[in-house]
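Input:
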Amino acid sequence: MNAIQDSLVELIRRTTAEIPDDVQKALVDSLEREKKGTIAESALKIIDRNIALARQKSQPICQDTGSILFYVDCPVRLDQIAFEDAACLAVKRATKLGYLRQNSVDSITGINDGTNVGLGSPILHFHQHRGEDIDVRLVLKGGGCENVGAQYSLPSEKLQANRDLEGCRKVILDAVLQAQGKGCGPGILGVCIGGDRATGYEFSKRQFLRVLGDRNPEPELDALEQDILKTANELGIGPMGFGGKTTLLGVKICAVNRLPASYFVSISYMCWAYRRLGVTLKADGQIEKWLY
Amino acid sequence: MIQLSSPFTETKIRLLNVGEEVLITGVVFTGRDAVHKYLHEGGRLPEEVRLRDGILYHCGPVVLKDEHSNWKVTAAGPTTSIREEPYQGQIIREFGIRGVIGKGGMGDKTLAACREFGCVYLHAVGGAAQVLAECVKKVRNVYLLEKFGSPEAIWELDVENFPAVVTMDAHGHSLHKEVFAASQAELAKHL
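Output:
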C-alpha cells in the first residue's frame, strides 16, 4: 500500500494546485465576455493570475483546501480497508507538506489536531466493478461554497414551485439568487432531483465529477441544464457577486428515484476554484494515467 | 485604483466609495470565527494586537515554517464574512477598526457600524490564495495560536498592494444590497 499512498499524495498535491483544463477554459472564456474596465473583469483577471501562480508554485489555489472527497472505482479484489488506511496516511503527509491546510476540527471540543484525519475526514466512496482498473477521483470542496448549498422540498408555496421540472427550475434559480457571490462565483451547480435528504446531496456532489463541456444524455435534464446556465448568467450577479455577465460556469443535473411522499431538489455549489482531478492506478499502486 | 496605505485614518476611510478598487499597504490582523466569538464574549487580546485604526482580515491562512524557522504564508485568501455578522458591528466600535477585509459581504448591522464609526468593508477575491499570499511580505507575529489552531489564530501580517474592492462604504452604501435587488428583479422576469 506504500505505492498507493505515494500516488495519493501526488494526486492531492496536483488537485490542490492545478485547476482542471475544462474549468480553466471556461474561466478564460468568461474573462473575454466581461465588460472591460469593470470590477468583474478585475476579479476574473486576479483569478486567472491565481490559477497560473498556484500551478507554477505548486501551492494551494485556495487556502481552504476543503472537504476531502475520494471517489474510488475499483475491482472486487481491492482491499478497501487497507486502501482507506493508505488514503488517511496520504492525507496526513499532504497536510504536513502544506498541500492541505490543517482543516479538520473536532465538532465538540473545537480542537484542530492538525492532521485532517478524523471521523468524517477524509470521505471515501467505493464503487466496485468487474474490470481491473483502480480509478481514484478526488474533489476538494471548500467551506464557502458548501455553505451556500441548498435543499428544497417541493411543493414550495413561497416560490410557487410544484413537483415538476418547472418547479425544479424555480428552486434552482432561487438557490443561485440566494448564493449571490458568497460561494466564490462564477460557480458550478451540481443538482439532484429526488432521493432522500442525504442521498440527494450525495448525488448532487457526484455531478462535479462530470466535465463542464459534456451534455446530459437525458434530453429533459439537458434542456434544464442549458436553460439554468443561460438564465443565471442574465441575472447580473457576476464574479464574486460584483455584478457582471458570468454568474455560473456550468450546471449539472441528475435525477434519482424518490418516495411518493418526498420531492427534494438538492443543490451543491462549487466555487470557481474547482479542484477535481483523478488517476488510474496500476496494479502495483503507481499512477498509470491522469484523468481529466 | 486607489492606494490605501497605513495609517488608516478615519478621513481616508470616509473618502472611499462603493465600487472603488484599492491596493492596501500596511499591517493587517487576521481574525475569523473563533476570534469573533471570543471577543464578543469578552475575551482579552494580547497588548500587541493593536486593532485601533487597523484592518481586520477574515482569513485562515496556510502558514508554514521555512528552513530558518520563520513563518511563511503560502496561501491567504479571504473567508466568508457573513458568519461574523452577529459580532462585527460591536467589534468595529469597541476596537476601533477602520477596515474589514473578507468576501461575500456583510449585513445591515455591520453597514450601520461602518457608517457610524467610519469603517469600510473591503472585498478580496475569494479563492485567490496565491495572488493574495504574494502580497503578504512578512509575518510579524501570531497570537492565540495554541488556543485556536493555525487557521483561526490572529496572524499579524505586513501586506503590500493587496487588491480589494470597496463593497460597503461609510456612507451607508452596499454593493451587495444593490446587486441582490437588481438580480431579484431580473429573475422575476424569467419566471
